[in-house]
Amino acid sequence: MSVDSRLPHALVEGPVRGVGAFTLELARSLGAIALVAARTVLGLPRLERRELVRALVQFGYDSVPLAMATAALAGVIVVLQSGLYIQRFGARAFLGWAAGYGVLWEFGPLLLGLIMSARIGARNAAELALLQVGGQIEGLRGIGLDPFAILVAPRVVAMELSMLALSTFTFLVAIVFEAVAAYFMLDLPLRVFFGTFAQMLGALDLVGGVVKVGTFGLAISLVSTAVGLSARGGARAVGQAAASAVVRGCAAIFVLDLLLTLALAGWMS
Amino acid sequence: MKRALAFFGAPVVLLARTTRATAREGLGWRECLVQLHELGGRSVWLVLSGMAFFGAVLVTIANSQARRFVGNVAVLGPAYFELLIRELGPVVSAVLTASRAGAGHAAELSTMGVNEQLEALEMSAGDPLADLVAPRVVAGLVGVPLLCVLGTVAATLSAATVAQLGFGVDGRAFMDPRYVDVWDLLAAAIKAVACGVYIPLAAAVAGLRARGGAEAVGEATTDGVVAASLGCLLIDFAVSLAFQLLRL
Amino acid sequence: MDLRATSLTVRYGTRTVLARVDCALPPGTQALVLGRSGAGKTTLLKALAGLVPVQGGQVLWNGEDVSRLSATERRERQAAFGMVFQTDALFDSLSVRQNVLLPLRRRHVPDAEAEARADEVLRAVGLLDAADTLPERLSGGMKKRAGLARALAARPSVLLADDPFAGLDPGTARQVARVLSEVSRGSTLLVAAPEAPVDLPLSRWLFLRDGRLVHDGPPAPELERAKDGARP
Question: What Rg, from alpha-carbon coordinates, does chain B have?
Fold first, then answer.
């Protein structure tokens, strides 16, 4: 006997109504996100410093080990993958370029975005949902304080700053791990790796990666904040807010990834 | 070091305990089907759309790489197809499923723990491991490989379409199985199955541990989804490394 | 069932929740477990029901050490217990009747008998009319009574009620108290509460303070008054 499950509504209802509900939901989410963005910008001048520092430590500093692990994995995985067709085409000399390009342009930002959507997106949504469910946000309003300036804006700013700081750091770690992996697994001397790397990659390629991560960070922070603030109910609502922040964050990252790749590729050529 | 041990150890211990509990209590096949339906219904749209976008990105990147040193992007097509089948299809689909199902399972189980429903289940002659964890593991074992196949197909179709319409080359190059051999399929299958078992277990470890109030639910959900996604990357890494070292 | 705890110690992480609690609860015991929140009342009830792992001492069911029982044996013995949880702990995807039937079905009680028993306990708690609604549509008092019905359906010889009066209005509390004392006649009844309920005057008090059992005997209202001031 099923103890805790409910049938997913999208499958029970007809596909037409599913599409309609999806469109409505999308419009509603975009509206909520725009509202959070606008209120955050308005809250910027009165940013609560202590909350900003706390959020920077929590979202940035505390995520460093996870970001490093992700970076190392991304680096090694990209080399393993490039190794596949480097061997096919015998283009060993290009590995530094191909691997560096892969990490800076695609896998570094994408994997970091997905993992951070889980790490800081879910956490932010859960915390805000907790405050919302416990009535603390209403409470702030009740004593004449603006919850956006005190709670929301510092978080959004801190998440964005954390993502940007983590991105450069991540790329560095990933590239070092790539070089080491190439040395051990494909017997490629470090000199050759960094030679093609420096020769064929420019500062612009790094900018591409940082722009992507920055955009993903903005998406994660706005989406998770909007989701967290709309939570209603009890413990169940907090869990659902965290879960749906991750999912919506991931969906947003994939859409933005395509748009940014197209835009940046067009702009670079 | 201790955390790394806990990261891998706890799911393994939970798997052993769940297997033992299920051998004792029996497995509810209906509940497994319900969970499979749940997993599919919740994740399929995310995986399909995410992978379709990802396929389009891959082609765009292949195109700008090709312009540097090959000339025609169609030459890279078969190699990219192999890459997609063997590496990116399973792992990106699995990470997407992990973010949906991992967060969902961890949230459900921790909510049940906080509301004392797990203990109520025990008092009702149920067993949380056999009744709740085992069906989710079975659903993951069956469902994640299916989702990986669907995700790979979506990425391939979208890649071929973008190559054809966007870059004016023959899109069929991006579904040319010239380089794909049985070892590639085996690597992909191992990854998908391993992730399918790992995602529900990692989520259950975090979810079953939660005690307290709504705060514990939020923490458990975050921990569960991080462990599930990072675990999928680690599994991909380990399998790829093993195949590379064996020169397969 | 004869319940006994000897030098029972329970820790959550580094926090000691119960420290060397000794008590004997022969069949038919009717007692209140009192103490302020965080004193260990919930943990004591759950430890007696075999729901939490014990770090020191023993819980004995008819003389058997619970931690030595296999999972299957423990499951069998647990059928003698009924527990009303602090949060109502109803399964939200099941209707009230299905919630009550779940423990019976799991213990392979024949369908006809299970249905009859479910009707009987639902009538006893006054929920027969609401039997087919989902828990989320019930009021707080009704949820509490549904939890009570689920605990009673298995005809337990030990009924453990964890703060059954929390958040109830005086009328509903009186009703719950009446059901508790009616159905538990002849069997063991332990009721945990932060202060002695006026509607349920039981003759034995177990008073917990910071995880220690400081009083086991007849009602001692002076303990409750000492609550705010002097700590030993």
Answer: 20
CA distance A118 to chain B (A): 5
Question: With bands split at pLDDT 50, 70 and 90, how would you rate the model's confidence at A1?
Answer: very low
Q: Min CA distance, C119 vs chain A (Å)?
A: 20
Specify the 3-state DSSP secondary structure of C164. coil
**B154, B43 contact by CB (below 8 A):** no
Interchain contact C91–A (C-beta under 8 A): yes
Is residue C79 within 8 angstroms of chain B, CB to CB? yes
| pLDDT tens digits, B178-218 | 777 888 899 999 999 999 999 999 999 999 988 877 788 88
pTM higher than 0.90, yes or no? Answer: no
B181: Cβ contacts below 8 Å, ≥ 6 apart: none
Q: Nearest Cβ partner of A4 from C93, C98, C105?
A: C93
| Nearest CA-CA distance, residue B106 and chain A, Å | 8
* Separation of alpha carbons C11 and B244, rounded Å: 48
Chains that touch C (3 or more CB pairs under 8 A): A, B
Which residue is closest to C95 within chain A, CA to CA?
A: A3
* Cβ contacts of A93 within 8 Å, gap of 6 or more: A192, A196
Residues C96/C130, Cβ–Cβ less than 8 Å: yes
Neighbour order of strands in the sheet with C56-61? C15-25, C3-12, C56-61, C64-65
Residues near B102 by Cβ (< 8 Å), separated by ≥ 6? Answer: A118, B199, B200, B202, B203, B224, B225, B227, B228, B229
Where are chain A's structural domains? Answer: 13-268
Contact A98 B244 (CB under 8 A): no
Model confidence pLDDT, tens digit, residues A220-249 = 999 999 998 888 877 778 888 888 899 899
